[in-house]
Amino acid sequence: xxxQPPLYFSDLSRCAPAAxxxxxxxxxxxxxxxxxxxxxxxxxxxxxxxxxxxxPVTLTVEARGRYRVYAGINYSRVPGGDxxxxxxxxxxxxxxxKFDDDVGYTRFALEAGWKVDSGxxxxxxxxxxxxxxxxxxxxxxxxxxxxxxxxxxEFAGPTRITVAGMEPxxxxxxxxRLANLAYIKLVPVADAEGALWRRLQPQPxxxxxxxxxxxxxxxxxxxxxxxxxxxxRDWFRDEIAPFLHNDVGTLMFECIxxxxxxxxxxxxxxxxxxxxxxPSWVDPLACFRDLARExxxxxxxxxxxxxxxxxxxxxxxxxxxxxxxxxxxxxxxxDGTLTNNVSLAFPEVxxxxxxxxxxxxxxxxxGVMIYFHRGQPFALFEQPVVDAxxxxxxxxxxxxxxxxxxxxxxxxxxxxQFLRDVRALVDEKPGRQLAVSVYGMPYKFDQVQQxxxxxxxxxxxxxxxxxxxxxLMPTPxxxxxxxxxxxxxxxxxxxxxxxxxxxxxxxxxxxxxxRELYAAGADGFSLWDGERRPPHASHWxxxxxxxxxxxxxxxxxxxxxxxxRVPLKKLAGHAVAFSYKDG
Length: 583
Prior knowledge:
Blueprint: E1 7-9, E2 21-22, E3 30-37, E4 42-48, E5 57-73, E6 95-99, E7 106-108, H1 132-142, E8 144-164, E9 179-181, E10 183-188, H2 191-199, E11 209-214, H3 216-219, H4 233-240, E12 248-257, E13 260-261, H5 284-294, E14 298-304, H6 321-325, E15 330-332, E16 338-342, H7 347-361, E17 367-371, H8 383-393, H9 405-426, E18 433-440, H10 460-466, E19 471-478, H11 480-489, E20 495-496, H12 507-520, E21 525-527, H13 537-543, H14 552-559, E22 563-571, E23 574-575
Parallel strand pairs: 2-3, 11-12, 11-21, 12-14, 14-17, 17-18, 18-19, 19-20
Antiparallel strand pairs: 1-10, 3-4, 3-22, 4-9, 5-8, 5-10, 6-7, 6-8, 8-22, 12-13, 15-16, 22-23
Helix pairs in contact: 4-5, 7-9, 12-13, 12-14, 13-14
């Protein structure tokens, strides 16, 4: 079988039901367009416009044996605003596919890092937004098919694949793009490769990836998008599906985002109408907990200590009810001006965050995670800080530079006290754990020669000496020397899981990074904003298996064959080389 040519299923007009397909433009139906690629694949692709009600359709493929499965997708354009992070292609996906026996859908988004003929590498952020040069490169995307690895699967005859467009909240006007499928391609798997995929199955000692799931699509992102409340458990099955059958072993669910919670909180706001819970909503923390238990994942509740948003932001995520009601506990600038967040120098503030964490632990989860790589500083020049500094040093802290070592130690002491309190809360029941994220190297505005996280109020050395944390997650990247230092200081049992950044990168880029961090003393990896990573399917196929330390060389080699760009020769009967040049 390995010598057999690939199997293409390129005629999407054969999808069912036929009533959902049309050769014309029609709301609520998939539009069919004929095409031919430069390498000779001819067929009929299907498009669905966002938010027009095109139903899921099924494509039947027939094969016997083990195959790599690839999805051929044309990422075309549609009128509408850019995604909320200003990407011309939504990072959460444009089309969804699943086999009948899958837990949920796999979402597909444009792969990052593939090379066009000019050598330019596409990225999914702000890069390339320079006008004419971007248009030329974008056209190479619009007039090609991205052939992306999906999975390895054993086939035993006719098998259905369901094809669907994106649904809320991913189909909102900020992220909406055309859904498309051009073909499914099956590549026979040779015996040696089959043995590799069997070795890459998750084992207890490889499931050392922690997926940090940002709840921005539920609570609204920090920039001010609206809340979304799923009313079906199927929505959560689709979310958790990419984290199964690989090395993800822990789900960190960022369900406390300042004064807004993605669970049925008695304390925090839960939606547009404050603390009012609609009985039709599915509780995200409860649902993720149940699904995690069902599939052998651990689940932590993550706390992000967000404050009020910009004054122009009227969405719930920016309202900051707690600080609005308690300005007396706000951080203060040198001259006493209030900032937009509360200070950990106040015991009442520490207790507030503890009360929220206690709510999440009542769900029977495995632990909690605290974000310390967002929201700094955690204390400034509040009266307790000024008084404590004067008692210790006889000076006015407000007259000192922000990097004064004495000030840094004092600010960090409030964070450490908060961690001691969280540790005591976690230890009320045996087996629960505490994870924290910290900056692992100078971030953005800092240009320092000798970096230490205490610059961001994080006295990691004291945390390790006192055994306060179980999992240390430096992000967005980390200096190898810090990992080595922490490993030498740590008590047995500490897990150091550095983040792998950027969020979207080719698999053959992530493997050398993992190799270097393992050598420095890392035990595994954390993946912040992990919900954005699986839609870049060829990258995720490698990154999600980096717990297999013994297979890194094989993974690096495997990564090079998981994605390719296939130029179109004809599209809708037109010669592509001489068409679609008008921008």
